[in-house]
Specification:
The chain has two helices and nine strands.
């Protein structure tokens, strides 16, 4: 079966979001362009790493190429809206690619579907016929900064950490190793 690559050259939105309650959330990345919506599931740690790497890439692009990169998120690019519904998983993300397209002055994010086989690096950010399905998104530096900022907020919006052991607190508490097994609650 031929590889499907969803390309978003000028997305109306590209955001990280979740479905579910803290402690039982499913993370998604969602690209929207006109009436086309593609949502992919992703691990929380992958979202955090992607946000961090985008920040590093923007610094490097500014330093090496002199590209205009905003220090903060431009107000008009802040997106606090929930994911566009219906949220239907296209695939689960396995491999991610990140790059800079000097011609269009855009950050390029590629998300490849998880597969059982090892992914050949040559298919990342390439249009080869063989390989896992992918989503490729082009973002201006400001849009990339806004994506990374929202992704950080989404990752950190989960359960509050225990003040003693930093493990996440469930609504009905947790067994804290620092309290010799005493069950802590959020009120403690």
């Amino acid at each position: 079966m031929a590889r499907v690559i969803h390309v978003f050259r000028q997305p109306d939105r590209f955001v990280a979001g979740t479905v579910g309650e803290p402690g039982d959330r499913v993370f998604y990345l969602q690209a929207v362009e006109s009436v086309r919506i593609v949502s992919v599931t992703i691990e929380k740690q992958q979202v955090a790493v992607l946000a961090e790497r985008i920040g590093s890439l923007l610094e490097e692009v500014h330093r090496r190429f002199g590209a205009e990169v905003p220090d903060g998120v431009p107000g008009e690019l802040v997106d606090a809206e929930p994911l566009t519904v219906p949220v239907e998983e296209e695939f689960r993300v396995g491999t991610m690619g990140l790059g800079w397209d000097a011609e269009s002055k855009a950050v390029v994010i590629e998300l490849l579907a998880a597969t059982d086989a090892e992914v050949d690096e040559s298919v990342v950010l390439d249009d080869t016929e063989e390989g896992p399905d992918a989503v490729r998104v082009f973002l201006s530096p400001g849009e990339a900064r806004a994506f990374a900022d929202r992704a950080d907020r989404v990752v950190n919006a989960g359960r509050k950490p225990c003040p003693l052991c930093a493990e996440p607190l469930d609504p009905n508490g947790h067994v804290c190793p620092r309290q010799n097994g005493y069950r802590r609650t959020e009120e403690d």
